[in-house]
Amino acid sequence: MIELEGVPELIDPVMICAFEGWNDAGDAASTAVGHLDREWKGEVFASLDAEDYYDFQVNRPTVALEGGVRKITWPTTRLSVVRADTGEKSRDLVLVRGIEPSMRWRSFCNEILGYAHELGVEMVVILGALLGDTPHTRPVPVSGVTSDPDLARSLDLEETRYEGPTGIVGVLQEACAHAGVPAVSLWAAVPHYVSQPPNPKATLALLNRLEDLISVRIPLGELTEDSRAWQLGVDQLAAEDSEVAEYVQSLEEARDTAELPEASGEAIAREFERYLRRRDGQPGPGGHATESGGLAEGREGGTGGPGAPYLRDPATGHGRPRRPSPKDEVANDAEDTGGAEEDAKDPDDAQGAQGTEGQDASRRDESGTERGGDGDEGSGSGR
Questions:
Q1: Is the Cβ–Cβ distance between 259 and 380 less than 8 Å?
Q2: pLDDT per residue over 340-375, tens digit each?
Q3: 178-209 confidence digits (pLDDT tens)
Q4: Which is it for the CA torsion 370, 102, 29, 4, positive or negative?
Q5: Measured between alpha carbons, how far is 359 from 378 in angstroms, rounded to an integer?
Q6: 368: left (phi over 0), alpha (psi -120 to 50) or beta
Q7: N or C: which end of the chain has fewer CB within 10 A?
Q8: Nearest CA among 287, 275, 278, 281 for reference residue 224
Q9: Distance (Å, whole) CA 101 – CA 75
Q10: CA distance 177 to 193
Q11: How far apart are CA 202 and CA 25, in angstroms?
């Protein structure tokens, strides 16, 4: 029996889940849940016992000094509750954020569903992100899938027909289906040639789709501005490498000639409705949620800074260093910062790297976005 102390009666609660690791390309999904937690000042009311689900040699604890006292933080999954009160409608969100477990996945899902039952959760939404053949210059594709045919019809989602290896997102969704809990998975496609986290553009796209799904306006904070800075940084890096620029152009052409969900009448109507909601309400500092544009230089995540993304060679899939510009050479002569060495490091060392190409292939199919090997274009349905 799960005992909940200090948790008030919730209003139309929806559980939002995201897990770092295999299902979280560019940390887009876990960052989205973290954003909700920060914006609405979530209060943690429970955490799962790390000893039951994690291999500490795979996900190691961290140590830090707090007031001169050493404190160890163990990898785990935490649950918090926030009240989404935008003045138009109040709704409670139960946020589940953690790391994909190393073991006992069925017990892990049963424990999360136990909390959902005790809190009266009406629907579970699981966020994920995968690597795909999508250009960074276009809106981020977000696919919504469910195992429930009735839910697919009522919410205009795809009914998943994926077969193959899966991660905790797929396992939790099926556990919800067997328990009779409505569940939806939202997947964002992250460009595979710029997979280093963070990816604020993909995070923004997930929050936009989530906003439409749960009918609650989400304050964006600085996320819109960060998304523009990220795209500006990738634009500059791609422009400095002719092979990458040519590859991006081929992805753009393939995307533009395909039937895009973003160009459908329903998608345009959703975007217009979102605009009206934000105009009539009190939008946050981020304003309307757009997914393109630029930003002045100098911000972390922009051009040349410590957060600048690095590209993958479209032919080999290996990381490739950013080519120095004349401006960089002048700067390096003036001050040796070692930035070039940082730009050239292998992207596979970055947290959130997506493992083998076989794992990438299985992820793309589960989300309904088809991706071939590096250098191949195409989109379709693997559901």
A1: no
A2: 444 434 434 433 334 444 444 444 455 554 443 333
A3: 999 999 999 999 999 988 899 999 999 999 99
A4: positive
A5: 18
A6: left
A7: N
A8: 287
A9: 9
A10: 35
A11: 9
Q: Nearest-CA neighbor of 319 among 298, 343, 302, 300?
A: 343
Tell which residue, 118, 195, 185, has the closest CA to residue 152.
185
Pair 328, 176: CB distance under 8 Å? no
Handedness of CA 291, 154, 93, 365 (dihedral sign): negative
Q: d(Cα 145, Cα 169) in Å, to the nearest integer?
A: 11
Residues shown for the chain: 383
Yes or no: say if 216 and 89 are a contact pair by the CB < 8 Å rule: yes
> In the 8-state DSSP scheme, what is residue 261?
G
What ranges in the chain are assigned the alpha helix state H? 28-39, 50-53, 105-119, 149-155, 168-179, 200-214, 223-239, 242-257, 265-280, 326-334, 339-343, 357-367
Report pLDDT digits (tens) over 203-239. Answer: 999 999 999 999 889 999 999 999 999 999 999 988 8
Buried residues in 12-40 as b, exposed as e (16+ CB within 10 A): bbbbbbbbbbbbbbbbbbbbbbbbbbebb
Is 0.85 surpassed by the pTM of this model? no
